[in-house]
Amino acid sequence: MSETTEQQGGSANCDVHLHAEIEVLKQALVDKQSQLIAMETACLRESDRQVELEDSIIAWQDKYDRLYESHKRVQKVNQTLEDKLLKLVDRNSGERAQLTSDVATLSVRLAQANYNIAKLQHEIVST
């Protein structure tokens, strides 16, 4: 019987050891499951964040596109206005040159007319 008692004692010791190992493995499994759940939760949060960022990128891209189109339109309008302004400056410069020439011509005629008037007045007084 001593052999049987020894076997039972060894078997009981082995069962305790196996139960302890099973408990350790169960705890490790629970820990890993908790880590997995935490990782899945973080992944879902990051996925939601990615969707938000993608939506934000689309909104900012749309704003950029609209601003860029507006900028191109304003540039075109500015170029048109600049061209019109330059034409006006050229035309006014030509008109100014013509008016300056006309003023000079009329000043000469006025001086001649004044000279003739003075000459005629002198003749009238002399006679």
Oligomeric state of shown chains: single chain
Helix and strand content put the structural class at mainly alpha
How much helix, percentage-wise, in residues?
over 70%
Distance between the termini: 181 Å
Pattern of helices and strands? H
The gyration radius over C-alpha positions equals: 53 Å
Q: Give the number of DSSP strands.
A: 0
Strand content: under 5%
Query: Unreliable segments (pLDDT under 50, ≥5 consecutive)?
Result: none
**Major sheet description:** none
Helix run count: 1
Q: Mean pLDDT score, rounded?
A: 91
Tell me, what's the shape?
A: rod-shaped
Main location: membrane
Membrane topology: Peripheral membrane protein
Subcellular location: Membrane
GO cellular component, one term: membrane
Structure description:
With 127 residues, this protein is mainly α. It contains 1 helix and no strands. It has one helix at 2-126. The mean pLDDT is 91.
Keywords:
phosphoprotein, 98% helix, membrane, rod-shaped, 127 residues, Tjap1/BEGAIN, 1 helix, mainly alpha
Please summarize what this structure is:
The protein has one helix at residues 2-126. With 127 residues, it is an all-alpha fold. The mean pLDDT is 91.
Secondary structure elements and their pairing?
Blueprint lengths: L1 H125 L1
